[in-house]
Design a protein that fits this description.
126 residues; mainly beta; 5-stranded antiparallel sheet; 5 strands; 37% strand
């Protein structure tokens, strides 16, 4: 009988240690912000991968304005200006021709030679 009590006590100890003695708690929802505001900007310029882009955006309540630009693989620059004045998203796209120096090099697949197999010899003498 003492062994059964010991086993049950060990089970209870392990179970309560897993949960810290308490049931899991759920995060409280964040309070509602009637006038959300933020501003951010980032840029990437990696010449080794030809990844050149940037973005900036600002928000004040229902009003959002921003833009982003990137260089496409053919060297053209695409700029997108967007805004939402509370009535829907609007965007204007501009493309500038390549000015040189930004185009990614053309990809060419590496050449592989055909593998040669020295198959087994099936010549048998009877």
């Amino acid at each position: 009988m003492a062994l059964k009590i010991f086993v049950v006590a060990c089970f209870v100890a392990v179970t309560s240690a897993q949960y810290g003695g308490y049931a899991p708690k759920y995060a409280e929802p964040e309070p509602y912000d009637p006038n959300p505001q933020y501003s951010f900007h980032y840029a990437v310029n990696d010449p080794s991968t030809y990844d050149i882009k940037s973005q900036k955006e600002e928000r004040n309540g229902d009003y959002v304005t921003g833009s982003y630009e990137l260089y496409e693989p053919d060297g053209t620059k695409r700029t997108v200006e967007y805004y939402d004045q509370g009535y829907g998203f609007q965007a204007v796209v501009h493309k500038e021709p390549a000015k040189g120096g930004y185009a990614a090099p053309a990809y060419s697949a590496p050449a592989y030679s055909r593998p040669s197999y020295a198959g087994p010899s099936y010549s048998r003498r009877y």
